[in-house]
Amino acid sequence: MAAPSSAPSVPPGPRGGRSSSNAADYAVDPLGFLTGAAREFGDVVSLTPANVLLAHPDDIGRVLLDREGLVVKVGAATRRGPMGFPLAMMNSEGADWERKRARLRPALRSDRLEGLEHAAREGVARLVDTWHDGLEIDVHDEMSHLAMRVGAVHLAGRPLGARGETLIRAVAAIMRLTSAPRLPMWLPTRTNRDLRRSLHDLDSTLAALIAEHPAGEDDHALGRLLADDPPFAEVRDELATLLMSGYETTANALTWLFHALGGRPQAAGRMSEPGFAAAAAKEAMRLYPPAWVISRETVRPLEAGGYTLPAGTTLGLSQWVVHRDERWFPDPEAFRPERWLDGGRPGHRHAYFPFGAGPRGCAGASMALREVEVIAAALCSRVRLEPVHPERVRPRPALALQPVGVRAVVRFPR
Prior knowledge:
Elements: H1 20-28, H2 30-41, E1 44-48, E2 51-54, H3 57-65, E3 71-73, H4 94-104, H5 113-128, E4 136-138, H6 139-156, H7 161-177, H8 190-212, H9 221-226, H10 232-262, H11 265-268, H12 276-287, E5 294-298, E6 302-304, E7 307-309, E8 314-317, H13 319-323, H14 365-382, E9 384-388, E10 394-397, E11 401-404, E12 407-411
Parallel strand pairs: 2-8
Antiparallel strand pairs: 1-2, 3-5, 4-12, 5-8, 6-7, 9-12, 10-11
């Protein structure tokens, strides 16, 4: 229901929430800008006249669960390009979204975890066989190849070979190129040219995978997508978002986890203990959430923190901000897997949402978390990764929160 008319409608914010400089500051350092805005102005922050940051779990839970029909996905079914694939499930609404989610649900059901775990352990064994003691590796590069190898079995039911390599390069370029402020796509800048080229490589590779898929095989994501003979563009957009939100998320989460474990070698030594690998994976996703901000748009007036936000307001819900709030997580900057053991929970039920929540939460969240857990435990049982210049590591807030500069030396047990 709408808030009483006496409630104020304009929350506080940097420069009164009315300056274009806020958008510029956000573009330069989105993580720092959002964190600073929430710490200075509170749980409801006006960033621009039409953009509001929500930082209290009460409001976040209400928006994500949305039992009142107050919000929709931002730009649903309107975008095509580097920042959106409009025909995919995650960018759909209403009956169209329900149809697409039902189509993919069998490929994401829990009884597929056993096959995923087998593929993960087999992928780890093959990867470790290519390493030697003292080898210095780019952890994200190695985890990207491993995640693609494992994810291909779930995505297409078979190894992707050279096509997998092309997808890795294309997704990496799209992530890198969309993390920095850009001029409009129609301008012939080098960044825009590179971005268009990467999108073309992604599209052409996905088209080849779709064309080569054997008829009648529908026990995995690609097969399910093709089962009812949908338009090519719909399948392509769905596959693209599965790659962005599945394979890329896994690669990033694994890299962040090994970065965090590098600073706590005693924690790395506990990865074989029951429950500890799962706790470590959850904690890494708290500090370095795969999605660092998600957005919704109000279609009716919404009350948050005592303010009335009109229809047409874009709401920002930042995992990066809330996951590092000491009200919900004591010592929030520290990597402490122990906080999740023995039934440990955050200080508020909606303070932890690495995969979103509610009906629009990630349908493959449990599979993704389990994949990270299994891969990390298997790797830690075989090798130790010594961090190299961990002080140089930084997050790159692209479509997902990418780790930059995570390098390590491989050490085999003697």
